[in-house]
Design brief:
The protein has 205 residues and is of the alpha+beta class. The protein contains seven helices and four strands; from the N terminus they run E-H-E-H-E-E-H-H-H-H-H. Helix 1 (10-22) links the parallel strand 1 (2-5) and strand 2. The radius of gyration is 17 Å and the shape is globular. The structure holds glutathione. Glutathione binds at residues 6, 9-11, 34, 39, 51-54, 66-67, 123.
């Protein structure tokens, strides 16, 4: 299998952290240069038609995209340590937390960065600065919610480390591009959790 990634991009990083947590370190990783538009090339689009990373090319040539789908596949192949839930109930609650983070935290942060940061102008055209700024405000509501969750439980989805922590951590690290730091914004529990996450070997990627 081959994993197509992009250094510093949050979604590939989610898969890279997921692999690291599973102790998988022999999967071939192929960098795709987003700045030069390599992901829009015909050859990359033949693998990922919507021109997105990450993408996982299977040994039979089929290609999986979408971070959660790739992680679901890896979890199936390498069940330990379990990161996505061991039974129907746990799987559903972890997925709920992960999707909340993805849709209501990662998406507005990505929109804010993509529409306001000059470095992202090559990816996002046209950039709508006002829309970006409003998305930056909107994500504060989710940060507040996350801060409350982490005040009462050690991890994003509850009492153990899961894929939802990986999604939230990669999102928060990406939010540095919009100069957001949880502690400075008053979210002390979110900051403490982020600092704990930053100490994991998988976070060094
Ligand atoms: N929903 C997708 C999102 C993938 C995505 O947006 N990837 C970004 C990098 S983090 C990308 O490929 N951006 C290139 C572009 O938008 O042109 C997933 O979960 O993998």
């Amino acid at each position: 299998m081959k994993l197509y990634i992009s250094p510093r991009a949050p979604n590939p990083r989610r898969v890279q952290m997921f692999l690291a947590e599973k102790g998988i370190n022999d999967l071939e990783q192929i960098p795709v240069d987003l700045n030069s538009g390599e992901h829009r090339s015909e050859s990359y689009r033949s693998k990922s038609p919507l021109a997105k990373v990450p993408a996982l090319e299977l040994d039979d040539g089929r290609v999986l995209t979408e971070t959660r789908a790739i992680c679901t596949y890896i979890e199936g192949l390498y069940p330990e340590p379990n990161l996505m839930g061991i039974d129907a109930t746990e799987r559903a609650f972890i997925e709920m937390a992960d999707r909340r983070v993805e849709w209501y935290f990662m998406l507005p942060i990505a929109n804010c960065v993509r529409h306001t940061h000059p470095g992202l102008a090559t990816l996002e055209q046209p950039q709508f600065a006002d829309f970006g700024a409003s998305q930056g405000e909107k994500m504060l509501g989710t940060a507040q919610w996350l801060d409350g969750e982490l005040a009462k439980q050690p991890w994003v989805a509850g009492d153990r480390f899961t894929i939802a922590d990986i999604t939230a951590f990669c999102t928060l690290e990406f939010a540095k591009l919009m100069r957001f730091k949880a502690g400075e914004a008053g979210f002390v529990h979110l900051q403490a959790w982020r600092d704990k996450m930053a100490g994991r070997p998988s976070a060094q990627i």
